[in-house]
Design goal:
209 residues, alpha/beta, 7-stranded mixed beta sheet, two-stranded antiparallel ribbon, 9 strands, 45% helix
């Protein structure tokens, strides 16, 4: 790809392609057309082909895509062909739920530790829980690929700034605030309530059209 800039819209579709291909592979499907993928994602077949052409294409005209091969190539593009070490800041309901989500480890995202201002139990499952005061020493000694922020809104920005100062380059933010970070830091702000607002809007307006 060189230095080609891929649009954010394309990037956000890649995990959906991957998830559907994973499902097709589990179902024993070996070939899939751009039209079939388009119907699953609610886009056009042309859009599917354009998306894949950003990375060199992966199919042949009139033949379709080999499901396992395409899934493997998307895994490479998404960086799913390696393991990532994660830490979670905030051991409340969201932090505990994320720590207990078994699919993370299966997909290459290994939660190594949780941090909180009050340690009520030394471990959650097999994951150690540390006082937030130990965050700096932990990151310096062990490194961290991805830090999950599952704190209250009031402290999320301070936690993010601390993580950035420690050299963490990827933040997954569940606090109800959009974090502002330097350009060399990636942040994904997860606003769960916004999805509910969209669902509420659709429910309210579904009978108006």
């Amino acid at each position: 790809m060189g230095n080609k800039v891929i649009s954010e819209a394309v990037v956000k579709r890649l995990p959906r392609y991957y998830r559907y291909l994973e499902h097709l592979e589990q179902e024993g499907v070996t070939k899939v057309s751009s039209g079939s993928l388009a119907r699953l994602l609610g886009v056009t077949a042309s859009q599917v082909r354009q998306d894949f052409c950003n990375f060199g294409g992966f199919g042949q005209h009139g033949y379709g895509y080999d499901v396992s091969y395409l899934k493997g190539k998307l895994a490479e593009i998404l960086g799913l062909d390696r393991q990532y070490d994660m830490i979670i800041i905030g051991a409340g309901n969201i932090g505990r739920a994320l720590a207990g989500y078994k699919s993370f480890a299966a997909e290459g995202f290994k939660v190594r530790a949780l941090f909180d201002i009050e340690v009520r139990e030394p471990r959650i499952g097999d994951i150690p829980v540390y006082n937030i005061e130990k965050l700096s020493d932990y990151v310096k000694e062990n490194g961290c690929d991805i830090a999950v922020i599952a704190t209250q809104k009031s402290v999320a920005s301070d936690v993010a700034n601390q993580l950035v100062a420690l050299g963490v380059k990827s933040l997954w933010n569940f606090a109800p605030i959009d974090l502002e970070v330097p350009d060399d830091v990636s942040v994904e702000n997860i606003a769960m309530s916004e999805s509910l607002y969209v669902l509420s809007y659709r429910m309210k307006n579904k009978n108006k059209n």
